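Lines hold sequence, tokenised fold; shown next:
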Amino acid sequence: MKNEYRCPNCFQGDIGTGRCTRCGFSRQEEKQNPMRLPELSFLGNRYLIGRILGYGGFGITYKAFDVLNQCVCAVKEFVPIGVVARQGDGMQVTVTSKSNLEDFEHGKRRFMEEAEVLKKLTDVPEVVQVMDYFMLNNTAYFVMEYIEGATLKQLMKSYGGRIPLFNAVSMIYRAGMALDQVHRRGGIFHRDISPDNIMVTADNRVKLIDFGNAKHIIGKRSQTLSVILKHGYAPPEQYSSASSQGSYTDVYSLAVTFYYVATGIMVPNAPDRFGGEEYRPLLELCPQAGAQLSEAVDRALVLNSKNRTSSVAEFLYAFYLQLGKAAAYPDSTDGSGMPAQGGQAAPIKAYLKLAGDGGPSWSLPENKQVMIGRSSNWADIVPTNNRQVSKEHCKLFWDSLERRFYLTDCSANGTFIGNERLKKGETYILPNGGQFSLVNHICNLEVRWENG
């Protein structure tokens, strides 16, 4: 197959006729951007660049193929609008004027720093995983896992304009928990939370994608700022390069996102709200949400950041209570998935144990990944010291909201479900009572949850 006919979506089929012979992707579906890298060009002789997945005020994200690891990935390129231009070779970028140079270099450094921080957050499953980052073509790139799924914006369309309340609460809660960990551990802020940047995978996992960097990229150039922020989702402090931003900035955007996906109605832009335009309280549009959740949204949407809910964890407390009520009363809902009246959630305990009767067990924390292996210096749980088991053998995540376990192998000799060896790096779902083994039955383990 001639390279110019190779499909930019699956990288295997022939798209010479305009539609891929393998995956069915059509040229008419392609997003266009004059600043894009040439299709099917290579970065560093490793990443084959395909179609555009998305673009914004400061970057373009491409679907790509990693020829070294033989896998599909996503590559994000730092190309701020109005600041750089593409050279004649289609690869190199140049700053358009000397006045933009300082902002560009500062933004490029921050782009790389945030990629480095995100790469260290591999134990937060809801954050898109960064696998590589580098400088090339006078700009910066980072490589991420490619996620098959739908954004909340796309899910809204499939649901007919708004997502059922319980689903919306669950999705925002899980995205928010990950965002809180990024704030506390990474010290960085997303600055671009919206339904377009929260994805739900085919196996119902939530992923935060497209971490924003507007505050660092724009410097003091207000004209660039107006391009980068998302009107409606951006709080007042994002409209001024002189204003400080923090976790409270993401709290506002997360609250707007929840309000929109649950009601189908947007909160007015921050400047319009300053002008007197108001939003209707969540309780009026979704009575089943209850006063507590509605009031939590109101506190998160306060225009003055000093009086706004300051942390994502604080904002999510009302979501936690709603999810607990729904879990405790699964048969007393009003059709939205939320309980008609209140009640206290029954606590749920999850644990890992040796398969069979008797033997030790280990409690599993809620919504946090643990490492299983043979050495306590490397692993959180050590069920065996057999040297065929890796020091860091596999990762286990207990999702207390969906009541499921996620298992990922990272070993030399394999993790097995039954007699099937798991693909290294891929995540598998285990039900209550599900069993797996380290190095094909050297150590048989079982996961369980039960009402406490």
The domain at 31-145 is CATH 3.30.200.20 (Phosphorylase Kinase; domain 1).
